[in-house]
Design brief:
Layout: H1 7-28, H2 30-39, H3 51-61, H4 66-79, H5 85-90, H6 93-98, H7 103-117, H8 131-139, H9 146-155, H10 168-178, H11 186-192, H12 200-209
Helix pairs in contact: 1-2, 2-12, 3-4, 3-7, 8-9, 10-12
Length: 212
């Protein structure tokens, strides 16, 4: 007898996959294993996330502290009857600016909403696309670069094998994990991360934790 996939099923499956990845990474990389042991039983958030909400949050948060981003994001959400492409398009620029967004970020949000509304960015289809296809679809929207698309893959779509060599936290973390005096070059990071396949996203999460 079959049953619909529930939120519980999704979270449970992700937790199980994370545990498999953790054990594999510890066996393959002694240096990363030390970080994993120090991190202990802390685990990432496996809650499902709405793609549009994740992309809106990413735009709002660019070049802001966490506190400022939380405040402005909260104001923007309060302006909308619900978070949808239609309501974003209808939102008055003056109101969005008053909420704390720059003129450029307002333009980015409107472009994101337009892409979603007219189907150029089909959010539902992203779950079925390859990592490369998702990146291509997202960077076609103003304000999104490869880094933003990679973070979306990691934390919204929960893709397991993303290595973001352009993320400053990952660069610093890998410098520490590898025991290097200077920041590693991209090629060095890619080579060091080869044993982490197909769980480079999980490895990166532990690399971030190493900075704490």
């Amino acid at each position: 007898m079959t049953h619909p996939v529930t939120k519980y099923d999704t979270i449970t499956a992700r937790r199980a996959a994370f545990e498999r990845a953790r054990r594999t990474l510890m066996a393959r990389d002694p240096r990363l294993a030390q970080v994993i042991r120090r991190t202990g039983r802390v685990r990432p958030d496996f809650e499902p996330r709405d793609p549009l909400a994740a992309l809106v949050r990413a735009l709002v948060s660019q070049q802001l502290s966490t506190k400022a981003a939380n405040t402005i994001h909260g104001r923007v959400i309060k302006l909308l009857p619900s978070l949808s492409a239609t309501h974003l398009l209808k939102a008055r620029t003056a109101d969005l600016r008053a909420a704390g967004l720059s003129g450029q970020k307002v333009a980015y949000l409107k472009d994101l909403a337009a892409h979603v509304a007219d189907g150029r960015l089909d959010l539902a289809s992203l779950y079925k696309k390859s990592d490369e296809e998702v990146i291509k679809a997202i960077v076609a929207v103003k304000g999104f670069g490869v880094w933003s698309a990679q973070m979306f893959l990691m934390f919204c779509l929960h893709r397991p094998d993303i290595l973001s060599t352009g993320d400053l936290g990952i660069v610093k973390g890998m410098q520490r994990v590898l025991g290097m005096k200077s920041r590693p070059a991209e090629r060095t990071m890619q080579r060091a991360a080869e044993p982490w396949r197909p769980y480079r996203s999980i490895a990166c999460w532990y690399v971030w934790r190493s900075l704490e």
